[in-house]
Design a protein that fits this description.
C2H2-type domain-containing protein; alpha+beta; 3-stranded antiparallel β-sheet; two-stranded antiparallel ribbon; elongated; 144 residues
Length: 144
């Protein structure tokens, strides 16, 4: 196993722990996505990825970030959905039905355009599909 893979293993274990603890959502699919929720460079520091400012260590950092991104975006990697998401700033429910009627009980949110499962991301202040590989619709859900 290369040093790149050892560092990526360490970082992926930390990311999975943070997802399980609800610190970041399960929908992150790139190393860059992590910066939306925390300082992703802390993962590199914790994994002891070398950095001394030389081009060689910059290449190592890029390779580790690329490997983490490859693993995060692997087909079949689970993402957050209604009933499984532990990220406290995601709301996967709605009280408005598909025809605009008020619902008695909160129900799983779906995109009004394509009907895929969706959620409101409080940190980003927008509605998103649960599946991070789904094409974004212009209108996922109208806030009521």
């Amino acid at each position: 196993m290369t040093g790149i893979h050892r560092h990526a293993d360490h970082i992926m274990a930390a990311i999975d722990n943070d997802i399980a603890a609800g610190h970041i959502p399960g929908r992150v699919r790139t190393f860059g996505d992590l910066h939306d929720y925390l300082d992703a460079n802390d993962y590199l520091i914790d994994a002891q990825v070398p950095y001394d400012g030389t081009p060689a260590t910059i290449d190592i950092i890029v390779a580790v970030q690329d490997e983490v991104t490859r693993r995060l975006s692997a087909p079949g990697r689970p993402y957050c959905t209604y009933g499984t998401c532990s990220y406290p700033r995601h709301d996967h429910t709605t009280t408005v039905g598909g025809d605009g009627e008020d619902l008695q009980q909160p129900a799983p949110m779906r995109c009004l355009h394509c009907h895929q499962p969706a959620h409101y991301d409080e940190k980003l202040h927008r509605y998103r599909h649960d599946d991070p590989t789904a094409a974004d619709c212009f209108l996922i859900h109208e806030a009521s």
